[in-house]
């Protein structure tokens, strides 16, 4: 029997967290999802994640919370990453970074290895995500687990390249970070589901989840105005991946918008 994974994009601010609390249970029922993964690095005030928002996201029905370059921005981040194994940070940060880059869990009769990587194009020059991805794929194979990768990256080229680099060794490589859902969902020839960006779970009337007027003034004036999370109705965006638990590879992927 096939399994389904719901992978959700960056949860942005109070609107994004509240949307998950109100609508995720129904979305899980509608999609038949066996596992839910969401990126939470923007959950607290648009930048970073604190314990309160993490707890709310997990209570809403998310099994694993991934992150990215903003996970370090709230006070207490190290303690939170160390204490909560369901919160992961990019695995390709240098040795000694707090927390873990993946989590192995069992749910719905399947072992899952949920992994987080961060890109380097137009971002911090941390360790190689491609080599780190190879190691994670090998660890998943050794554990007999379905491997899912959230690649938190700016460059579409880098995201697609990682998908082909890990083709056939992981079930999914999906992108986060840009907050704009792309239209390129596909399963590669060797069975890896790919989507350049999942989009965001955040305010609809916004620019990448932030107040539109401020973003417009930033662009027009080229001044470093502080961005603030927008309010109002929120969208939930991501992807639903169907997986063969025998081969541990993908059968299909479709974009999700709720």
Structure report:
- This protein has 258 residues and is of the alpha/beta class.
- It has 6 helices and 14 strands.
- The chain has one domain (3-257): Metallo-dependent phosphatases (Purple Acid Phosphatase, chain A, domain 2, 4-Layer Sandwich), CATH 3.60.21.
- A 6-stranded mixed β-sheet has the order 5-6-7-8-10-9, covered by helices on one side.
- Helix 5 links the parallel strand 7 (146-152) and strand 8 (172-176).
- Helix 1 packs parallel to helix 2 (51-59).
- The mean pLDDT is 95.
Essential attributes:
258 residues, alpha/beta, Purple Acid Phosphatase, chain A, domain 2, six-stranded mixed sheet, 6 helices, globular
Describe the protein's topology.
Elements: E1 3-8, E2 10-11, H1 13-31, E3 35-39, H2 51-59, E4 64-66, H3 77-83, E5 102-107, E6 110-118, H4 129-143, E7 146-152, H5 156-165, E8 172-176, E9 186-187, E10 193-195, E11 200-203, H6 212-221, E12 234-235, E13 237-244, E14 249-257
Parallel strand pairs: 1-3, 2-11, 3-4, 6-7, 7-8, 8-10
Antiparallel strand pairs: 1-13, 5-6, 9-10, 11-12, 13-14
Helix pairs in contact: 1-2
Beta fraction of the residues? 25-35%
| End-to-end separation | 26 Å
Q: What is the CATH-assigned architecture? A: 4-Layer Sandwich
Number of separate domains: 1
How would you sum up the global shape?
Answer: globular
Continuous helix count: 6
* Count of strand segments: 14
Low-confidence stretches: none
Largest sheet: 6 strands, mixed
| Biggest sheet: strand arrangement | 5-6-7-8-10-9
Summarize the structure.
The chain is an alpha/beta fold and 258 residues long.
């Amino acid at each position: 029997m096939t399994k389904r994974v719901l992978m959700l994009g960056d949860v942005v601010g109070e609107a994004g967290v509240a949307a998950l609390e109100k609508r995720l249970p129904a979305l899980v029922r509608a999609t038949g999802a066996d596992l839910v993964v969401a990126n939470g690095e923007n959950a607290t005030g648009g930048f970073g994640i604190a314990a309160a928002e993490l707890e709310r996201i997990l209570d809403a029905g998310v099994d694993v919370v991934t992150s990215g370059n903003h996970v370090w921005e709230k006070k207490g981040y190290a303690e939170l990453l160390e204490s909560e194994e369901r919160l992961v940070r990019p695995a390709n940060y240098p040795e000694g970074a707090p927390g873990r880059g993946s989590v192995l869990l069992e749910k719905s009769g399947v072992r899952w290895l949920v992994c987080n990587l961060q890109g380097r194009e137009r971002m911090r020059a941390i360790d190689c995500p491609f080599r780190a991805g190879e190691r994670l794929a090998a660890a998943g194979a050794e554990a007999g687990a379905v491997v899912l990768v959230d690649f938190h990256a700016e460059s579409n080229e880098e995201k697609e390249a990682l998908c082909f680099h890990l083709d056939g060794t992981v079930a999914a490589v999906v992108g986060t970070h840009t907050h704009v859902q792309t239209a390129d969902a596909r399963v590669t020839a060797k069975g890896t589901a790919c989507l350049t960006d999942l989009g965001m779970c955040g305010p609809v009337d916004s620019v990448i989840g932030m107040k539109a007027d401020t973003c417009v003034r930033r662009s027009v004036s080229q001044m470093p105005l502080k961005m603030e999370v927008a309010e109002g109705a929120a969208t939930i965006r991501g992807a639903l991946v169907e997986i063969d638990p025998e081969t541990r590879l993908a059968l299909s992927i479709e974009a999700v918008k709720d």
